[in-house]
Amino acid sequence: MEIDLFKIAHRLRQALETAKAIDPISNEIGASNVHAAYTIQNINNQIRLSEGQVCIGHKIGLTSKSVQKQIGIDQPDYGRLYSYMQIESGGHFPSTKLIQPKVEGEVAFVLAKDIDEPIHTHQSLLENIETICASIELVDSRIENWNIKISDTIADNASAAYFTLSENKINPNEFDFKDCEMELKINEEVVSTGTGKACMDNPINAVIWLANKLIQSGDKLKKGDIVLSGALGKFVDINKGDHAQVNISGLGSASLYID
Question: What's the predicted TM-score (pTM) here?
């Protein structure tokens, strides 16, 4: 029996809109069917664009070994960021739009120009970056109980939900990507720590991976795009009434509240 990927895409959109989780779709398309999963993600992307939503960049997921271990997945993935997902640092977000949210601290990149050709070196990537900053990504799975395989999270737009960027933005050539230290707090309690090495040994490696993956698929990173490069430590639950704050050495801090 042929799998209807459009119906699966519709169920994921409904889960997002109603904030009600669904059963794993990996049960239908297979746990490792990356091709079908990205097809589902792309179906929903085209629908969102046709509805007038604005894509402002990409997120890279599952770059940290600690996060991979938490979920039981051994490879990175990517999803798209839309303008509605961005929360001003220090801003408030309603818990009613969330199902089972978690937060993680990471480095965000802003593109200075389009990347049309494959990237092979760190310097080649940095020549395409305008600024970097600290970020909190708020992830949320539309799959019940985070019971996900790689195909579940890819199809679910890499479990993207919302994010905030620090007000402080710096030149990427002035930053120690590999040895920067990240500290994530919930209600002033430190709940996650890590360094740049946790993100594919260097957040630059993650962005290179994404740039080349997009080119392979016929897409590309564009001038002005925001790229969330992936967690520098484990991700943690966040609940109604909580305040999250990330501090990254050399980059500053970002925060958000869940109401």
Answer: 0.96
